[in-house]
Amino acid sequence: MNVLEAIETRRAYRSLAPVDITPDLLRDLARCAQLAPSCNNNQPWRFVFIHGKENLERFHPVLSSPGNDWAKAASLIVAVCSRKEDDCLIKDREYHLFGDGLAAAFLILRATELGLVAHPIAGYRPKKAREILGIPEDDQVITLINIGKRAAEISPVLSPKQVEQESTRPERKPLSEFAFDNRFGAPLAGESGR
Ligand SMILES: Cc1cc2nc3c(=O)[nH]c(=O)nc-3n(C[C@H](O)[C@H](O)[C@H](O)COP(=O)(O)O)c2cc1C
Fold first, then answer.
1. Is the CB of 123 inside a 6 Å radius of any atom of ligand 1?
2. Which of 163, 194, 184, 168 is nearest to 67 (CA)?
3. Is the pLDDT of residue 193 over 70?
4. pLDDT digits 0-9 by tens, 91-137
5. 193 vs 116 pLDDT, higher one
6. What is the pLDDT of residue 145?
7. Whose CA is nearest to atom 9 of ligand 1?
8. Packing angle between helix 96-113 and helix 23-34, nearest 10 degrees?
9. Nearest residue CA, atom 4 of ligand 1?
10. Residue of 80, 119, 157, 158 best suited for mutating to test ligand 1, as the one with most atoms within 8 Å of CB
11. Within 114-151, where are the H helices?
């Protein structure tokens, strides 16, 4: 699978089947995140890999939102955190979350290449995550990436909208709304304007 194929294959599926989590898999995913670019090579990201029945069950109260019950079927949950002091602070620009996003994207694309679903979420209890995982107070827990195999059956805990999204990728904004040619708002060649 090349990069374009991984980008096109990746989906935030919610019907997850179990997958074997090996030390090699964890190292592989961590290695891909490690190679992400960061401001001044600061590498602000920290990943806590949560796996194994007992550890996952202990972590499940973090998944507070009913809309995210599906994530309880993940075989691996990756908590991504960082401190703003650990990356570039250039006047009002704080780069740590940008770095986290890049590293998380590398991990997600690698998981996709390995035939896995890697679905990031924002709906969880960050304080509870910090408490259970021993993450320091000043670290922001920015996402949980839920990893498993795509299940053949649709998860019974999904809402009708979530069921629809299992087969249809949520629509994207047209290029004309975010990709500009030389000047903000100017559409790329071949794209109609707003
Ligand atoms: C920062 C972030 C937070 C998200 N939070 C949730 C969430 O709490 N629950 C959920 O089911 N999906 C969540 N998603 C997944 C998005 O809903 C999904 O990526 C989007 O609808 C596009 O679908 P696609 O990734 O399959 O193309 C999140 C994605 C990102 C990047």
1. yes
2. 163
3. no
4. 999 999 999 999 999 999 999 999 999 999 999 999 999 999 999 99
5. 116
6. 98
7. 121
8. 130
9. 121
10. 119
11. 126-133
Q: Cα-atom radius of gyration of the chain, to the nearest Å?
A: 18
* Tens of pLDDT, residues 36-94: 999 999 999 999 999 999 999 999 999 988 899 999 999 999 999 999 999 999 999 99
Minimum CA distance residue for ligand 1 atom 17: 12
Determine the pLDDT at residue 64. 81
Q: For ligand 1, is residue 68 a contact (CB within 6 Å)?
A: yes
Asked whether the whole model's pTM tops 0.85, one would answer: yes
For atom 22 of ligand 1, the residue with the nearest CA is 170
- Whether residue 48 is found in the same domain as residue 136: yes
**CATH assignment at residue 96:** 3.40.109.10
In terms of residue numbers, what domain contains 175?
159-194
Ligand 1, atom nearest to 71 Cα: 11
Residue carrying structure tokens 């029945």: 53
Claim to verify: residue 98 and residue 178 sit in the same structural domain: no
Residues 93 and 188 in one domain: no
Q: Which long-range contacts (CB under 8 A, 24 or more apart) does 175-181 make?
A: none
Residues 33 and 49 placed together within one structural domain of the fold = yes
**Of ligand 1's atoms, which has the minimum distance to the CA of residue 65?**
8
Instruction: Extract the tokens encoding 27.
Output: 């190292």
